[in-house]
Amino acid sequence: MTQNLEPQPLSDDWDDDHGVICPHCMGDGSVDCNCGGDLCVCENYGERDCPLCFGGGAVTEAREQQYLESRRQAAEAMKRVWGAGHD
To answer: CB–CB of 63/25 below 8 Å?
Structure first.
């Protein structure tokens, strides 16, 4: 049996999405469910599909920017609640 060791050209159709890595799950596609701590009560066994990319691992740039903006707003709100000394 002989092996073909020639480099194969990359297919152009596998990366048509042009998305960016999901900033919520970092491209993993799943996040911790945290429903019951170490005792999962939702039958996800500790993980569930990422609610931002729905398990795909990539999002559009617009969705990424919307997510990052909402995180920035939440951080600003918490800073106002906690005070400026807790950066």
So the answer is: no
CB 60 within 8 A of CB 21: no
CA angle at residue 28 from 23 to 56, to 5 degrees? 85
User: How many angstroms separate the CA atoms of 52 and 55, rounded?
Assistant: 8
pLDDT digits (tens, 9 = 90+) for 21-79: 999 999 999 998 877 666 666 776 778 899 999 999 999 999 999 999 999 999 999 99
Q: What share of the chain is helix, strand, coil (3-state, %, to 5)?
A: 25, 10, 65
Pairwise CA distance, residues 80 & 71, whole Å: 14
**pTM of the predicted model as reported, rounded to 2 decimal places:** 0.63
